[in-house]
Amino acid sequence: MRNLSLSTSMLLLAAACGGKTDDATPPAAAGAAGATTAGAAGATTAGAAGATSAGAAGTTSAGAAGATSAGAAGTTSAGAGGAGGSGGAACLTPGAGQGPFPVKLTLKNDTSAPLSLWQECAIDHRITSCESGFSTPLVTSGACTIECGSSSGCIACGACLSEELTLAPGEAKELGWAGHTFTFSTMNGCACHDTHVAPAAAYRVEVPIYPTSTPGGPGGPGAPKPKPIRTVTKEFSLPAAGGLVEVSLAP
To answer: Rounded to an integer, what distance in angstroms lies between the CA atom of residue 147 and that of residue 210?
Structure first.
């Protein structure tokens, strides 16, 4: 019998041990060889277990990825459009066209006694939308930040004065809303905002009423904000008739 070459002998030895002689061997071929050596019963059991594990993992991964993609897409669409989401078309004002829709909210003391609001950078209030079920406050000011994508430098703002604001009977104060909402990020180390148009839809303003202090009492500049004694709510729509909404502060 002819002597085999050294390389041929090594190949035969590797094949007999079930080893791999080429890193490019297809996985299917390697699996088939392993299954033959292990026996048909072992291959069937291993195959069933492997298929079950792979199927479960694939389903979980696909489900998670699908849910993530769908959630991200839904959130982006609702945030960008301002409509849709949980509120859907029922929240929208039909035939209103494209905003923004500026509005002035007049807070009026319709009682026979003084009432106190709280003022920091603005009068303490929050605006929510029908889209979120009136649960999530909208950010209606981009003050002290630059528009993302602009060439402006950072804006430095000092702290706002925190103090009680007392309204005499019949007195009123105005809150202005330009009809925009804002989201925030950073650009070149500066806080920046993106401006979004609030859609023509239903909204709610909530205004806390605070205890009224005596003149020179604890409600002056720099005083800690007390707990509100009640909250006034008023639902309105954009666009508002004449751009005006009156909010009675009476109980």
So the answer is: 34
Q: In what order do the strands lie in the sheet with 244-248?
A: 172-177, 103-108, 244-248
| Torsion of Cα atoms, 87 then 89 then 92 then 93, to 10° | -150
Per the rule left: phi > 0, alpha: psi between -120 and 50, beta: everything else, 114 is: beta
- Residues ≥6 apart with Cβ < 8 Å to 110: 170, 248, 249, 250
**How much is the pLDDT for 138?**
98
Residue 223 one-letter amino acid:
A
**For the whole model, what pTM was predicted?**
0.64
> DSSP state, 137?
B
pLDDT, tens only, 7-47: 433 333 333 333 333 333 333 333 333 333 333 333 333 33
Structural domain boundaries, residue 218? 90-248
**Domain endpoint, select from 59, 81, 103:** 81
Residues 147 and 178 in one domain: yes
- Geometric angle at alpha carbon 93, from 90 and 99, rounded to 5°: 130
Provide the β-strand partners of residue 31.
Answer: none
